[in-house]
Amino acid sequence: MNNKYRTSGHSRYTVYYHFAFCPKYRRNIFKEVDINKAVKQAIKDMAPHHDWIIEELETDTDHIHTFLSAPPRYAPAQIVKLIKSWTYNSVYQQYPQIKRFLWGGKMWCQGYYVSTVSDRSTKEEIKRYVRKQ
Question: In which domain, by residue range, is 125 found?
Fold first, then answer.
């Protein structure tokens, strides 16, 4: 078996996604070191529950990049929805003062960017890009 493949109950796969999305109102919430760390930690904590592997995870002042491998049972929209809801719940519980910046009970913008990556050269390029954010 080639080690670049992952295996689940009934599938063998190599599926990588690059996601980017923004906080509601494009607020610069990631300038706050504690909030930045809390969002990243929430994503890292949830990944094993869904059998995701986080390859890279970085923030810029007003958006986040996530590069991960996920089983094919997860649609990209479902992954984004899970990340957004999990981080919202986690960060709002730890830092209720964030509501000053993000009122209305929303932490994330509706939209997002997603691309799939499957070959090694492209994967490494995406990892470098995300790492340098």
Answer: 14-131
Q: How many residues does the chain have?
A: 133
Q: 9-64: per-residue pLDDT in tens?
A: 888 888 999 999 999 999 998 998 899 999 999 999 999 999 999 999 999 989 99
Total structural domains within the chain: 1
Residue 3's pLDDT band, with cuts at 50, 70 and 90, is low
DSSP assignments along the chain, one per residue: --TT-EEETTEEE--EEEEEE-BGGG--GGGSHHHHHHHHHHHHHHGGGGT-EEEEEEE-SS-EEEEEE--TTS-HHHHHHHHHHHHHHHHHHH-GGGGGTS-TT--B-S--EEEEE-SHHHHHHHHHHHHT-
Mean pLDDT (the chain) is 90
In a domain? residue 57: yes
Note whether residue 77 is domain-resident.
yes
Asked if residue 60 is part of any domain, the answer here is yes
